[in-house]
Amino acid sequence: MATHGIGVRSEVGRLRTVMLHRPGPELSRLTPRNNDALLFDGIPWVERAQAEHDGFAGALRSRGVEVLYLSELLAQALALPDARAQVIEQTASDLRLGDILRGWLTEWLGALEPDRLARVLMAGLRNDEVEAPGLVTALLAAHDFLIDPLPNLLFTRDSSVWVGDRVMITSLAMQARRRETQLTELIYQFHPRFTGVERIHGWQREHLEGGDVLALCDGVLAVGVGERTTPAGAERLAHTVFGLGLAHTVLAVPIDQDRATMHLDTICTMVDVDAILMYPNVAHRLSAYPVRPGANGRLWIGPREHFLDVAAAAMGIERLRLIDTGLDPVTAEREQWDDGNNTLCVAPKVAIAYERNEVTNARLGEAGIEVVPIAGSELGSGRGGPRCMSCPISRDPL
Ligand SMILES: NC(=[NH2+])NCCC[C@H](N)C(=O)O
Fold this sequence. Notes:
- This protein is of the alpha/beta class and 398 residues long.
- The chain has helices at residues 46-62, 70-77, 81-92, 98-110, 114-123, 135-139, 180-190, 231-243, 280-283, 307-315, 329-337, 358-366; strands at residues 15-20, 66-69, 125-126, 145-147, 160-163, 166-169, 199-201, 213-217, 220-225, 249-254, 268-272, 275-278, 287-293, 299-301, 305-306, 321-324, 344-347, 350-354, 370-374, 391-395.
- Helix 2 (70-77) crosses helix 5 (114-123) and helix 3 (81-92) runs antiparallel to helix 4.
């Protein structure tokens, strides 16, 4: 495909193409013993999670959005020998494997059909699912993983993010998610649909996750700095986008180092060209450092100020309207936890949101935002809403 029309310059421009991941066998790997390490707060009912996800994809399609599935792009990319060789080498390089198992796995993976290989890369591989030789497999328990599963692939937001017409491969902070970006990098590198698209950042760089990056408008990015994106990740982002002329301002937004606020998009998302939905319990204290290109390739860093003020100034608008999600702090806290603030715009003033967050959604309605509700009781157990579960690839310019 020609790269014409590809790219993202806002959070709200009409959404044309999005990448999702329909949850699959990787979710069946979750147990009460590993769910914390794998960043899920419960054990989802897989079939229901899939049905909910189909509802999400259906809502997008009904609004004219083209839905691409990560698993399909991956399997298609894996038809190419170079792509297979690259990912097999990366997967087998895990030091826990040791040489014997590494050699065996390299050969075993190399013999798989693209679909099956994609499935193993996503769902992982248990010791008792193969008969591999060596002391390592003998000493590991039957249910130990030789290749770890990736249940958080569901959250396609985090492992790549489009900035203008380039795609940034992120670098995930949590051990359980690191390998995800090998897969997204592979898709963008090898899938014919993305031929000619320039990749930036890279999965081995400073930590930076897509859930922390918000395109407030063309030329202005906000980046949350907290549990996932490090200060160095934010600095690298600023240098990179300024160097390529993709933005004139980056707002570095310190957020609490907490699971509840793991990404900037768990506390706020844009719902219109000049409106932002925000968790009220932080709205009054959210601040940001404006960062711009400085002299001699350095960064100019302005004073830390209230987020809404710095954002409006950078965006060149008088005011960034705040929609806050309920005055009662307990209700607000409950709905924030269930990703009430994590909405996905399919167009200005039209946001997909989890139906369960009734108070938040009512506020949105009162503020003139059309809410497209989706079910998420099972999907939500991974702590992510419609924005987390989507990677926009193409939005119309505003
Ligand atoms: N953009 C987001 N808010 N993503 C949510 C990711 C949730 C996932 N379980 C994690 O902990 O990484």
